[in-house]
Model the fold of this input.
Amino acid sequence: MNFEVVIGLEVHTELKTKSKMFSAAPVSFGEEVNTKVNIVDLGMTGAMPVLNKSGVEYALRVCHALNMDIDELVVFDRKNYYYSDLPKGFQITQDRRPIGRNGALEIEFDGQVEVVEIERLHMEEDTAKQFHFDDYSLIDYNRSGIPLIEIVTRPTIRSAAGAAAYLERLRQILLFTDVSDAKMEEGSMRCDVNVSIRPFGSQRFGTRCEIKNLNSISNVQKAIEYEVARQKKIILSGNQVTQNTMRFDEDLKQTVVMRAKGDAVDYKYYPEPNILPIRLDHAWVESIKANLPEMPDVLVKRYVNEYQIPKTDALILVQTKPVADFFNNTVKHTDQYKQVANWLLGEVAAYLNKSKLTIDQTRLTPVNLAALITLINEGTISSKQAKEVFTITIEEGQDPNVIIEERNMKQISSVEVLSGYINEILDGNPQSIEDYKNGKNRAVGFIVGQLMKATNGQANPAVANKLVVELLKARC
Amino acid sequence: METYTIEQLAAKIKNNEIDLKQYYEELFEEVAIQQKRLNCMVTITREEAFKALEKESGSMLNKIPGVLKDNYSTKGILTTASSRMLEDYVPVYSAAVYESLEKANMALIGKASMDELAMGGTNKSALTGPVLNPWDTSRISGGSSGGSAACVASGLVPFAMGSDTGDSVRKPAGLCGVYGFKPTWGRISRYGIIPYASSLDAVGIFTRNVRDMAIVTRELAGRDNRDMTSSFNEVPDYLADLNPNLAKRTIAVLTTVSNEVRNEKIKANFEEMVAKFKELGAKVIEVTIDQELARAILPVYKIIANSEATSNHACLDGIKYGNRQPGESVDEIMINSRSNGFGDHIKRRFILGNLALATENQEKMFRQAQRVRRLIVQEMDEIFKNADVIIAPNSGQIAPKVAEASDDMLSDEYIILENYLALANFGGNPSLTMPVGMVDGMPIGLNITGRIFEEQTVLDVAYALEQVLDFKDRYKRED
Done:
C-alpha cells in the first residue's frame, strides 16, 4: 500500500521586543536567573496585564510577510491549566480571534515549488523556564511573559523535506522582519509537528500524532521520517495508530510517547477580562506593511533580474538578513554587482567562517567594500594587494583609499615613471641586455624583479612586464 | 473619644485644633475595644498610622484615619484576603488605591476582615471568623466587605475601602447603616486588589455622608496605566460640584425589585423615600425589567463571577508564595496547598466555575451567561434613556442573625431582591447605598444607581435625600 504523508506544523517564536508582552520587565536573554521579572511575570495576585504595543507591531510584520488577513480587533483569551512554569495558572493568548488568518508561504525543495497554507498566527506569552534535578526543580522567571507568536499551518505539507524547507523559509521571514533571532537550538523558535498518514487517494485524515519540543530543523526532519515509518509499520501490520503526544529522543533517534490523548487538558479558553478588545488603527496596520523590508524571495528575484547574479548565489546572499542588507547597501556605491556578490560569498564568507563572527560584528562597511572593488577595477591595486587591503579594512575599519595611501600600496602604472626606473636599472645591468640579446628570456624576469624592489612592489605588474620587454628591445 | 467626618477632622488639623498624637493614642485604644466586640480587623497597623503623623500632604485625607479591606495589596503589610491560603502573605507591592492614599498621607489604621477571597455576603467565611454588626452584635455585618463596613459604622474611621463584585460594598453598607459607593468600572484602578471576578470587580468606598464620599472618590479616580481597563475620562471635582437640586432629575423606581419587599416597615420606608424625592422636585417614574431576566441575575452572576474567579485564583498554588503544603510532586504540592488553603464554599465556587467553563458546557453556561448579561445591561440602558438614576431598597431585610445568615436561599424574594444589586456590576454602573431608616433597631438602606461615569449624578441625588433625612454621620459604638 502507498501512503500519503500529512503534516501540519505549529511554530512558536519569541519576539525580541524591548519589554514583555504584558509587563514592563525587559526582554533580554542570557541574563542572571530571576533578574528580569516583575509582579506580573511572577503571577502575584492582583497584578494586571498591560499589552505591549510593539508585540502587536511585530506580530503584524510577520502577518504581512505571510500575506495574512488581519483581524483589526485584537482580542485576548485565557488558556487555563496548572503547571509550575505557568505562574498565573493561565496563559494569555488568542484563541477565537487570532490576529492573522489565511497566510501562504512558497517553499522550494528538490527542485519543486510548493505553497504551504498557513491557518493562523496569534500572540501570546511565554512560560517560565524550569530546571529539573534529581530531587528538586528550579524555576527561572526571566522567560515568563516574553512575547510569543504561534504560526500554525494547515495540514498541507506532504514530506519531511517539505517541512524542513518550510521551517527554513519561515525562519528567514522571522529574521528578515527583524522580530526574532529565531534560534531553534536556543528555544527562541520552537516547533511542534502533527503527522499522520493515509492511503493515497483517501479523503479522510489518518490518526495523527503530535511531536513536541523539537530543537533543530534537522531533528524535525528526522522525527517526521521516523514517525512516518513507525505509523506505516503499525498500519501494515493491521493495527491502528493511537493519538499520542510524542517527543523525539535524540540519542535513540526515535519518537517516544509523552502522553496519551486521554490525558489531554481542557484549557477552558475564555475572554481575558482585564484586556478589553482593542480596535487597531487601520492606517497604523498599513504603515507597518509599507515599512516592511523586502522579503528574501523578492530579493532573490531582484538580484537575478536586475543584477544578473546566478540564482544559487542569490539564494546564499539572502540566507541571513545582515548579509543581504550588506549586499543591498554595497550596491548603492558600485555597479559591479557580481563582484560584490563574489566578495561576499568568497573572501568575506571565508573570513566570517574563520572568525566565527557575523558580518555586522566586523568592521567592514558597505562603502569600504565598494571602494575596494573600485580600486581593483581602476587598476589602482592588484588583486593580491586587494586581499591585503581587505584584511585590514575588515579588521580595522579603515577606508581602503587611506590604507593604500598610508602603506604606499598604490600601483605605479605610469609609463613615464616606470620607464625612468627601468632605464636606470638597465644602465646598471648591461649583462642583462647581453643575456636578452642571446635569447635568455629570464633577463626580463630579473629586470622586473629589480623594478619591484626599487618601487617597493608598487609597479603595476602588467604594465611593468610590457615596458621592460619594450625597453630591452630598444637597447638591442 | 470624639468621632469626626473627614471634613471635620481635616478642618481641625488645618487649624491646629487637635493634638493628633493623643487622638491617635485614644483611637487605637478604641480600635482594640471595637475589635474585641466586632472582630472587624485582620491586622491593626498602628506603626503605619503614626508614621503618617510625621508627614504632610496637601490632600484633604492628610492624616485622616482609614481602613483597607484585606484584599488590597499593601507592600510589607500582611494581606490575607481572609484566606488560609494567604495567611502569611506579605505583598512585595502596593495596590494603586493604597499608593494614592499613601500619597495623600492617609493614616492606615488596619486591614479589615472580609469573606474569604471576597466570595460571600455574610462575612462568615473569613479566616478570622464572622464580623459582627455594630448595631447588634448578634447579627452579621454583611459581606464581603463586612470588616470595612463595621469599622466605619462603629465610628473608628470616617472612611474605609472595600471591593464590590456583586454587592460586596453596598450590601454591608446598608446592613450597617453607612454609605457604600461603587463608582463606575474603570473609574478607579483595580491594580493590586486581589481579584474576585475582573469584569465585575470594582473599588468601593464606605463613609458616613455624601460629602466625604465625594472627597475619597475624587482622590482615587483617574487613569492608571497599570490597569488597562481604567478610564482616561477626566475626573470632576465631585465635592465642589455637589448639587442637591433635583428639579431637573428623573428618578426611576425599579418596581421589579421594590414589589418583592415583604417586610412592611421596609416597604413603608421605601414609599416614604419615593415621596421625599417627589417633594424635592424630582420627576419620579416607575420602571421594570423583564421578570425572567430579573430572575436570571443570580445565576448569570454566579456563572460569570465563579468562572473568572477560577482563573483569577489559579495563581494561588503554593509554588511562588502562599501557604505551601508538602507533596511528592509539583502537582501534589499544588493540590495539597489548594485543598488546605481554601474553605469549602470557595472550592464549591471553583468547581462551579470550572464546570461552566468546561468546553462541553461553555456555550450553554458561560457564554450563555454573558449573552444574558448583555441583555440585562440593554434593559438598564433603556431605562437610563428616560431616567437619571434607578432606585430600589438595598435589601428586603435587616441584618440577619449570625447563626441564621446564609447565601443559599431560593425564595423569589431572595432571588431578585437580595441579588439585584449585581445589575450595577453587569453594566459597570456607579451605584451607591445610603442609610434611610431604622427598622427594629437596625439600619436599612436605599440604593441609587446611575449611568456609567455619572458618579456626580448619583452623589447629587444622594446628597439631596441626605439633607431631608437624619441618618448621616450615624455610628454605633459600645464598650
Observations:
- Chain A has a mean pLDDT of 93.
- The first helix of chain A runs from residue 53 to 65.
- Residues 294-406 of chain A form one domain.
- The longest strand of chain A covers residues 112-125.
